Amino acid sequence: MISVDQVKALIKDKLEEKDCFVVELEVRPGNNILLEVDSMKGFTIQDCVEFSRAVEHNLDRETEDFELHVSSPGLDKPFRVKEQYLKNIGREVKVIMNNDEKISGLLTAVNDDGIEVEYSYKEKVEGKKKKQTVVEQKHLDFNTIKETTLIISFK
C-alpha cells in the first residue's frame, strides 16, 4: 500500500518550488490518494496538474494501482491548517466555538496559539436613544475553536 510519507516525499520539491502548503493528505483503502494543496497566492488548475504529475510519474501503476485526486481546499470548507488562517488575514470569517457560540468578524491576526477577530454589535448606551455600534477585538485559542470558515461576499 502507498503511504502518506511516500506521497509527501514525492511532492516535497514541488511544494518548495511553488511556495505551497498541504491542507490535507490522505491515502484511503485501495490506494485512493486525496491531496489538497494551497498557497498564499492561490492555487490554479495548472498547479493541480503539476502536483498530479509529480505523484503520478513517480509511482508505478504496474506494481501498485492507485487513484489520485489533487485539488485546492475550496472556499466553503472549514480551515484545517494554520497557513489557511494566515492567508485569510483581513477577510471576514465565521468562527464556531466548542461551546457552539458563533463569532463573525474580521480576522486580524494569527499567532501560534490562536487568532484575533474584530467584530461589532449594537448595544444600548445610557443617555442615547438609539443603540450604538461597539467594535471589539477578541482572542480565540485554537483549542477552543470547533470550525472557522470564510464568509463569501459579493459586495
Plain-language structure description:
By secondary structure, the protein is an alpha+beta fold. It folds into two domains: 4-71, GMP Synthetase, Chain A, domain 3; 82-150, Roll (SH3 type barrels), CATH 2.30.30. Helices cover 21% and strands 41% of the residues. It contains three helices and eight strands, in the order αββαβαβββββ. The protein has helices at residues 4-18, 45-56, 82-87, and strands at residues 20-28, 32-39, 67-71, 92-97, 102-110, 114-123, 132-141, 145-150. Strands 7-6-5-4-8 form a five-stranded antiparallel sheet. A three-stranded mixed sheet has the order 1-2-3. Helix 1 (4-18) crosses helix 2.
Structure summary:
The chain is α+β, with helices and mostly antiparallel strands and 155 residues long.
Considering the chains and any ligands shown, give keywords for the structure.
single chain, 155 residues, alpha+beta, GMP Synthetase, Chain A, domain 3, SH3 type barrels, 2 domains, five-stranded antiparallel sheet, three-stranded mixed sheet, 3 helices, 8 strands
What secondary-structure arrangement, pairings included, does this model have?
Elements lengths: L3 H15 L1 E9 L3 E8 L5 H12 L10 E5 L10 H6 L4 E6 L4 E9 L3 E10 L8 E10 L3 E6 L5
Parallel strand pairs: 2-3
Antiparallel strand pairs: 1-2, 4-5, 4-8, 5-6, 6-7
